[in-house]
Specification:
alpha+beta, 9 strands, 23% helix, 31% strand, Membrane-anchored protein, GDYXXLXY
């Protein structure tokens, strides 16, 4: 039983360290937000997220590519502009990437393409400050795994949480 506990703790702590490393060392990439229903700001302490890149993936005909690791997962090839904003190039089909390109992982659930999360939670009563959000900022690992780290305005300035 003790050995089992040690094993579980080792796995959990290993995952925590991996996530902390990605938050510290991951490449900062911005995804432009697509219009979302403003009512979600009023429903509670979160904002529903939808990204323009997800719309591009749907238009390109995502069909559950096996390249991303399963029937409902995939990878998209993007090019980062000078500010780090990701622009759609193509769905990943396993070919060699051109200079300046990288892949990002996504998953498709219930007909929606998602990157890391589809909601951003914030402190109660601070929803109005997030109405200016135009970009989601992600830390991206070498493998294309994404962690949402904040929302940014049109000038890529982070929208600071309430102190």
């Amino acid at each position: 039983m003790l050995l089992g506990l040690v094993l579980v703790l080792a796995v959990v702590n290993g995952r925590i360290l991996q996530t902390e490393r990605q938050l510290r060392d991951g490449e900062l990439v911005y995804l432009q937000l697509a219009p979302v229903d403003p009512r979600s700001l009023m429903q509670g302490d979160y904002m529903a997220l939808n990204f323009a890149l997800a719309n591009a993936i749907r238009r390109a005909g995502h069909s559950g590519s096996q390249v991303g690791g399963g029937a409902n997962n995939g990878r998209v090839i993007v090019r980062l502009d000078a500010q780090g904003v990701a622009r759609f190039v193509a769905l990943d089909d396993g070919r060699e990437l051109a200079a300046g390109q990288r892949t990002l992982r996504y998953r498709q659930r219930k007909g929606r393409v998602r990157f890391a999360t589809d909601a951003y939670f914030f402190q109660e009563g601070t929803g109005a400050r997030y109405e200016a959000a135009r970009y989601g900022a992600f830390r991206v690992s070498q493998a294309g795994a994404m962690l949402l780290v904040g929302l940014h305005d049109e000038e890529l300035q982070r929208i600071q949480p309430q102190p």
